[in-house]
Amino acid sequence: MSTDAISTLTAEMPSRPLVARLHEWVTTVDHKRLGILYILYALFFLVIGGIEAAIMRIQLIRPHYNFVSPGLFNQMFTMHGTTMIFFVVMPLLFGFANYLIPLMIGARDMAFPRLNAFSFWLTAFGGIFLYFSFLGANGLYGAGSAPDVGWFAYAPLTSQTFSPGHSTDFWTLSLLVSGFGSIGTAINIIATVLCMRCPGMTLGKMPLLVWLNLVMAVLVILAVSPLTAAQVMLLVDRYLGGHFFDTQAGGSAVIWMHFFWIFGHPEVYVLVLPAFAFISEIVPVFSRKAIFGYPAMVAASICIAFIGMSVWAHHMFTVGMNSNANTFFVLTTMAIAVPTGIKIFNWLATMWGGKIHFKTPMLFAIGFLFQFLIAGLTGIMLGVAPFNWHLGNSYFVVAHFHYVIVGGILFAAFGAFYYWFPKMSGKMYSEALGRLHFWLFVIGFHLTFDFMHIPGLLGMPRRIYTYEPGRGWDTWNLIVTIGVFFQAAGILIFLGNLLWSYFRGETAGSDPWDAWTLEWSTSSPPPEWNFPVVPVVRSRRPLWDLKHPSDPDWKYE
Amino acid sequence: MNTTFMTTPKPDLNWELPARGRTAMFCLIAAESAIFTIFVVAYLFYIGKSLTGPMPKDLLSAPIFYTICLLSSSLTIHLAVSALRRGNIGTFGTWWLGTLALGAAFLYGTANEWHRLIYVDGLTISTNLFGTTYYSLVGLHGFHVIVGLLCLSIVMGFTLLGSVKQEHVERAEVLSLYWHFVDAVWIVVFLVVYVIGR
After folding, report:
1. What is the pLDDT of residue A165?
2. What fold is seen in the domain A21-555?
3. Which residues of A touch B185 (CB under 8 A)?
4. Would the pLDDT of B37 be above 70?
5. What ranges do the domains of chain A cover?
6. Which of A391, A459, B33, B99 could form a disulfide with B77 if both were Cys (CB 3.0 to 4.6 A apart)?
7. Quick check: A65 and A139 in contact, CB under 8 A?
């Protein structure tokens, strides 16, 4: 009965004029549409940020190369970092959270649908505003006045004296605006998870994805707010003549670093916890086993959030803190490896003895496990203060955090794309193209980021626009740049696969993976109201109970 | 076909979840607290670091009266919400108006102090670090008082139009949570600026 209603609705959809349909997308408050808007927005900026990265890598392909000017190079690395963190990864993760959380907890929508739309449009405005800097302000000549102070914008480089014009204002205002959007979304996620769960879904029965996004939202509230405060201070300095970061008047440049990294390090966990969330859903389904150590996974996530709030100054070892501070931050940085290790072992234990299906989402999940482990190991190396004194601000650091963000988070996000694409579009993606994307991206990723460690170890600092020949950096930089082309090819195939499958793919059906969480119990794509009848759950795998009434999970949990 | 099965088990489930309005307000308060924490840390860090005068001890005197005004407005808004919970709209309106008046009095006190500092003592936000941190922290709090007063005024308007009913008590309570937070932050700001800072 309900499926009839759904099919008549979808049959009616294409008959409406294009303008009316676009208008619906712009004015929508539906969590699924907003989720898709977030994801499309992130994909758009992923391409832009990727192009910026490619420009930098072409500039560095050989010594004394003049592909771009030093000034444009500064703008490229600033815009690349800012874009990728704030306008690619965060919207991507918020998009999946928006789409999946209400479906996974059996709710009709987020707790505050209009706040949800407001947050999205704030974030969208922030990104557009940032890129308007190429045209606006003093711009329209040359490359405009895009920000060029680096993505963490250290003082006093951001003061009026050293950064005249409006380039830094574009940076700070766009982050301020999108920060409000992030806080709004985080409040919405917490209220949704705590107040909108369907009957029977106690906190201990929530899917791990929901748990991890809850922890992520708490971290957003605790981490993005300090960034907002710091941006307000920077604006006071730049517009009202304040002295917060003005060393000439007794202000401190180091306190900006503290305020920025109090945001900046928890931000890493804001980005990686949803990646963990994807892996925690994909690995069990494709290993055909329930997740190993559910309570340990939840506890480890909360531990990561707690410890993650107290490790920020490991970004500042080279600044010169006293030995007590150094010791404290070394120890907390070491400590955070423990809950992260627990998670890795739990995923491995989930796969152990399972019947593993090597579909594209699982390939990306396995890539994630391997690469995230290495990223964590170089993280521990950099967390040791004496080692950090040698390699701080070198390409070793760049290689490390790209290993986390590309090798870890982006791989997990690709896995999530392939895993939930059938649910979001109702179509199956092409498995062959998915595998091609995976292998191209694995090759490109390892060419680029494995070999990027080496010029770092050989002393190549980050953010230089060119370098002298004969320091042993040349070949490594060439290999690193070659890897970029493989990655770009992978991304093109990925986008092509999404488009082709959306229009030409086979119909997926409501549950193509034989999965166990609630989103697979409704049609693909889900109707506007998600569930015709409010579901009632008794275990962590409600669809397992449904499919195996003689052997349900709730007997053992 | 899925749905029929999924609704059958356990009809006797006692299922109650927290109210989303309160939950969201507590989250907002957490976010705001983090913002205030950064400003308070900056204030404390920069105490005594100004290179030129004037210094806090020359200019600031504790605004005891206006502080009492603001803190007692927490009591009046609590009484207002309790009255609304009992369905007593008249009493609710009176206490709500009292809250507005006390909040406005506090804001007048701040405005007075700023006027004296700027026009008599010549301290502005760009004078020295004391000016920068003082106006930012007190101004951030004042901004929250203004936002609170605007929200309270909207409710007051609805009350005068007669559209506030007993069933709206939860919403009034959510707003009162925000107001309690604004008052609580003032205790911290007062201690930092007028007690420790001098």
Report:
1. 81
2. Cytochrome C Oxidase; Chain A (1.20.210)
3. none
4. yes
5. 21-555
6. B99
7. no
Q: What is the pLDDT of residue A144?
A: 61
Instruction: Return the CATH fold of B20-196.
Output: Four Helix Bundle (Hemerythrin (Met), subunit A) (1.20.120)
Task: Give the whole-angstrom CA distance, residue A317 versus residue A153.
Answer: 17
pTM: 0.94
In chain B, domain spans: 20-196
Q: Is A199 in contact with B15 (Cβ distance < 8 A)?
A: yes
List, for residues A104-142, the tens digit of each pLDDT value: 999 999 999 999 999 999 999 999 999 998 887 664 454
Q: pLDDT at position B38, please?
A: 97
Maximum CA extent, chain A = 75
Pick the residue from chain A with its C-alpha nearest to B18: A195
Residues in contact with A96: Cβ distance below 8 Å, sequence separation at least 6, in sequence order: A35, A39, A274, A278, A413, A416, A420
Place B198 in a pLDDT band, splitting at 50, 70 and 90.
confident
What would the 3-class secondary structure string for A55-71 be?
HHHHHCCCCCCCCCCHH
With a cut of 0.85, is the ipTM above it? yes
| Closest by Cβ to B125, choosing from A222, A224, A240 | A240
* DSSP secondary structure, B84-147, as one string: HHHT-HHHHHHHHHHHHHHHHHHHHHHHHHHHIIIIIS---TTT-HHHHHHHHHHHHHHHHHHH
Residue of A101, A192, A194 to mutate, testing the B interface (most B Cβ within 10 Å of its Cβ): A194
What phi and psi, each to the nearest 5 degrees, are found at residue A461?
-75, 155
Percent with pLDDT over 90 in chain A: 88
